[in-house]
Amino acid sequence: MIDINLIREKPEWVKEQMARLGDDKAPIDAIVAGDARRREIIQEVEELRRRRNESSKQIGTWMGMLKKLEGDVKRAEEAGEAADQLRDQLNSLQTRADEVRDETRRLGDQIAALEEELRVVEAEVDENMLWVPNIPHPSVKYGPDDSYNIAYPPEGVPLPQFDFEPKPHWDLGPELGIIDFDRGVKMSGSRFYVLRAAGARLQRAVIQFMLDYHINHHGYTEIYPPFMMRSAMFYGAGQLPKFADNIYRDAEEDFMWLGTAEIALTNLHRDEILDEAELPLNYVAYTPCFRREKMSAGRDVRGIKRGHQFDKVEMYKFVTPETSYEHLDKLVSNATDICEALGLPYRRIEMVTGDLGFAAAKKYDVEIWAAGCQEWLEVSSASNCEAFQARRANVRYRPTDGGRVRHVHTLNASGLALPRVMIAIMENNQQADGSIVIPEALRPYMGGMEKIS
Hints:
alpha+beta
């Protein structure tokens, strides 16, 4: 989440940033009002506690005086002396002591009522804060939607040229016996498929290759996380409450299925204070991913481009704020290195405000060309979330100069996402006879196989 001090100090500026994002639901006014009431209650409670403490001290004083007078009355009665005046004083003191006790109880009741109101107000403020997206970095250009994104010229190998009509993967796969759409639908319904034989092995090879490349060439540490996690982890990564409708969950336990390894990696150091000397921390993880996609009718209905289940290799960084944009460039470069190594044409896309997403302050996409589909396919989104996720997951670091503890900056990028890499490999490397040439980088992972025929 963003720093609430921004909303306290510059609410109109924050609203302007929400408008740049095209977000008209961020409850800024409600947060300002709730935060003001929260601080009022805290001040009222502090004043009431001060008065109750004074009242409690008075009770102690009155009780001491009462005890002394009771002793004086008893001694006067035992000595046969007149004690009426002492009894009057005793009764007057008793009345005053009872009044102070009642006042103390009333103050306690007021404090209890205000503390309950404070609990409700704080819960409302916290809930409202969860609906506020990240503030875009000043360098992010304004644009109302993804049609305004900035596409850079293609890089890597040239777009493939054919002396025949290239086929899309939904024709290639079944003809080669490596994709079975019918049995996938039979078992799980639309948007599911089965990879068979060399198709299954090719996907496994791509995953293994990407992990090895990031570990050996980019210096990442591999993580194997759980694939389902408690809902608190999804709040920490910024997936909840915004994307609740897209998450698969256990019906009985507080478990949710990962839609991306980013969720697990965000929370790897949850509630920890790291030393600056440990940073940056660079992690890479493979996970299957599950998302309840709300797919438009007629959109991407053919093939394996879009589905409720897919595989992904994810890169993740914990860094100091001063270096986070340098690391964003590194993430994009690490993703494109995979494209280069697999011989896939790619291009970079710079996102405008209207397509920035919920947690990112700045984001780039990497797209690869698929010759059969004749389209650019997104295989990586590289995001700098700055302190947005770290504030939610409470991940901080202690500077080496002894300064105050600060939130880290977190960054993530796919490195890369399947099955779109599979689509491009199949379609770009197809031959006139319907076979597919396997990229050289993958052949050691395919047992030396050079071609799928």
